[in-house]
Amino acid sequence: MPRYVKEFAALAVAGLLGVLVSSAVERRQATAQDNAPAARVVPPSREVAQYSFSPIVRRAAPAVVNVYVQRRVQTFSSPFANDPFFRQFFGDAFGQPSERIQSSLGSGVIVSPEGIVVTNTHVIRGRGETEIRIALADKREFDAKVLTQDDKTDIAILKIESNDQRFPTLELEDSDTLEVGDMVLAIGNPFGVGQTVTSGIVSALARSEIGNSDSQVFVQTDAAINPGNSGGALVDMSGKLVGINTMIFSQSGGSQGIGFAIPSNLVRLYVQGAAEGRKVERPWLGARLETVTRDTAEALGLDRVAGAVVARVSNSGPAAGAGLTAGDVVVNIDGFEVADARGVQYRLTTRGIGSTVKIGVIRKGQPVTVDLTLVGAPKPGRDDVRNLAGQHPLDGARVSNIGPAVADELGIDETDGVVVVSVRRSSTAARLGFLPGDVIAEIGGTKVASVRDLEGLLGTRQRMWLVAVRRGDKVFNLQVPG
């Protein structure tokens, strides 16, 4: 091989090695740059350095108030006060009467310039004469009266008594626009320390199986909520009200990052009802719904454990008229997915009486849509309700035949029988511990099927009254001397 060819080949190999070495060095340098910590730089502007929620708080905080409640409470003392048997029937109202002042503190939100305030029912609820005081963020204080309150939803609407003064307000947002991960602020008066703001995100939506009512569905947040925050505001980044803070999940009594708020769409219904001087009615479905379980999903061949099974349909109810049948699985209302029976009731309630909704169901494995017009439950007639008085254990109780409206109001199954609607204070029925929702099953071993039956049985003198009372899933047998 000629000498010049050998020299050329050697130069070519050397050049190739140089290129490979150079590329390797560049790759190592690039890798080192990628792994290097990000450079710390001075914020480019004062505005960026002062990023803050304060503009939102300035708009929202003036409309969040403190709610002070004082009650004159009649208490009783007795040597049997700690006896479980006596407390089962008599509760705390057993013994010698005395009076004391009971105070409580919560929060509220002004939602109209005229002084309409939203808070929780549990903030203002209690026995005895009640005085409510509203304290604004600017330290002004006013008396307030209750316009409406609902134990099922834990919503109470108050009116500030102010001689036509105007007040700062929070606008209600459409809570259906919330998404998990959205930032929110909780504003209230925790532990009575004064107005406090905490921040967090929406942790979950449509949380149910938490409250005591079949219509309660909550927005979950990790914004700190503590005792005293009840009735306070949950606001979004536009400064609008998306929920009323109502409860926490806690093993210590303080915030552990799991708080719940009533969605603003449900709050709006009660605000509108109070402004129009009417009570909010929940739509009557005329069907019994049960939440889908794993066993139910497997038996029906569902691909998800979600929805509500139609267990029973009343022949004359709206559900039957719309074509719903037993075995249908409700999976959405107007396109919004429902996870359980409470989700169905919540969606129907927020749509309101008079609306027509599209209910998506799975029927024998196939998707079906039915149209349902929402109506209120039929009211009990004059002969269905009685105020009882006389020498018997139910003196002072108001009772009713169990119909759709009464069953819905008291949260009991729509069956035959008689239920206690209310109890007059200091009456025999009150002292014996009867409560609204108690079903009078039997008197003296005889089944009670109607108010007329009950009146007939109570009209006879007895040496010993034997009363069977169904409360929830339990039956109590009460014996009272005649």
Level of helix content?
Answer: 10-25%
> What is the CATH superfamily of the largest domain?
Trypsin-like serine proteases
Question: How many domains, in number, for the residues?
Answer: 4
* Gross morphology: globular
Instruction: Report the CATH topology name of the largest domain.
Output: Thrombin, subunit H
Portion in strands: 25-35%
Instruction: Tell me the structural class.
Output: alpha+beta
Mean pLDDT: 83
Task: Tell me the number of strands.
Answer: 25
Low-confidence stretches: 1-22
The CATH class designation of the largest domain is Mainly Beta
SS element count, helices: 12
Q: Tell me what the CATH architecture of the largest domain is.
A: Beta Barrel
Please summarize the sheet with the most strands.
Answer: 7 strands, antiparallel
Please compute the radius of gyration using only Cα atoms.
Answer: 32 Å
Q: What is the terminal separation in angstroms? A: 133 Å
